[in-house]
Structures
1.
Amino acid sequence: MLLSPQRTTCFRITLLLIGSTLLFAIPARAAHRPAKCCVWRVTNAKAPFYLVGSIHALSKKDYPLPAPYEIALRDSRRFLLEFDPNRHVEFEKKFEAAGKYPRGQDIRSKIDPELLAWLRQNVMAVKPDDRRARRERGGNFDSEFAYKPWWIAQHLVGPATYSKSSLSHGLDNYFVDRATREKKEIAGLESVDEHVAVMGGLCDRDSEFILRDALDQPGNAEKEFSRMYKAWRKGNTDALWAGDSRLRKQAPWIAARFVDNRNVKWIPRIEAELKAGKPTAIVAGALHFSGPNSVIKLLEKRGYKIEQL
């Protein structure tokens, strides 16, 4: 699913646990090019039409990208991402607002008391200090009661592990930067409000699950990302789908909310783009092109012929 990472946030959360790493360095590119990529072409479309599975964090070593990505960039005159990146500022404001409880409510009455006690003991907030450039100031978790569990989970960061450079080299940013520079059209599969609602619309129970899941998996995070990264490099959608199996087993309704349900909503929009006959690339998280209810499978059911490059 992979929501677009925020470039700026009002605060971040730091676990006071030695060795906890929730975001991490990206593995170096493989020595040889894979036979396939997370790029597909709709062969019976009126004009060149590509589906591009993205990964939101890469390193400089991942560039230049394999040829199929560059072909999709070259051939397309229009790009649709998960939401319109030209409205990123609006998204950030609404996303943060969705991460806060309404006035008069806070996290203390929304989550298990034992989890709250653990957070108060083990987590601190780190905020930018406007009085000193590039400095931060810390405070205890009690200062962040207004934020919902899913928001806290999104901002759990081990010390010195959050790599903005890695995010800036993500495939999404690369496509957007190239498209902008070449004055090509950019739009979104979802409105800003729809994109915010993916996380912002979680109920209290599911929001707490997301936080617990983030806390339970810090030791495995690097290995899991490495497996997903390697699968992406090889264009291996079976491995990508398998990598998401834990969430589908533990909370299938949340997994469907993040991926399958959105795929279904996207199909009419994608089909409208296909019928418009303009060279186009759909760029979304690679997981949206994996599994039995992927964008690819749903389009094939409608008679479109798709080949992986």
2.
Amino acid sequence: MDLLRVLFVCVANNLDTIPAPLLDRMEVLEVSGYASEEKSVIAEKYLGSQAKEASGLGGADVVLKGAAVDILTEYYCRESGVRNLKDHIVRCVFVSIRLVCGDFWEH
């Protein structure tokens, strides 16, 4: 089998875990992630509504404030993507439901 025309793609978050002999033969392309401002816009436009749908509050008047998203992105979601941010927003929506419903949530 001729592998001269095959392109292998390797994705890693940390180059330290790739063996040195393999890393010597690789072309490394570093791609930056989202900036905090971009994450905030993504959260406002998409992640907030997805979190409402996931929690069953699709039509409810639930507002995701920009200050809350800023705190999440600065202190809890420092990775380059938005997957962790989405998980935290969903978690915040569920916690707020529990706070509003109180004892009713337990039953």
3.
Amino acid sequence: MKNSAPVQPNVQPNIQPLFRGDCLFCKIARGIVPSFKVFEDDLSLVFLDHRPLFAGHCLLIVKSHLETLEDLPDSIVGAVFSNVRMLSRAVMRGMQAEGTFIAVNNRVSQSVPHFHVHIVPRRKGDGLKGFFWPRRKY
């Protein structure tokens, strides 16, 4: 076969919902705490960050209580990051941004211990250059 793409395994991105009563993001996923929803499917929910770096800053959460990237089952990683990619494009278009900054904190700097991805619209000269990490030589 010429020019054929490799066959990908048919993995269903399915996970049983698990909620933690004291988790803010679980409460948002269940509709107990209001949010400004941007996107939702069976696996994830995207809403505007209540303390955005810039207008359009979104958070993608998985609907089940998982705390870190390492906690995501292999069966959903692809679907989660397909949603991240789709939202990155949508945020760029909707906010007329030049790009996006995508970030995941694992425990350190994770303000809510529930897996989430920051999708932040970016523009040249927006003030975030060097904002996050001091650079050092090895």
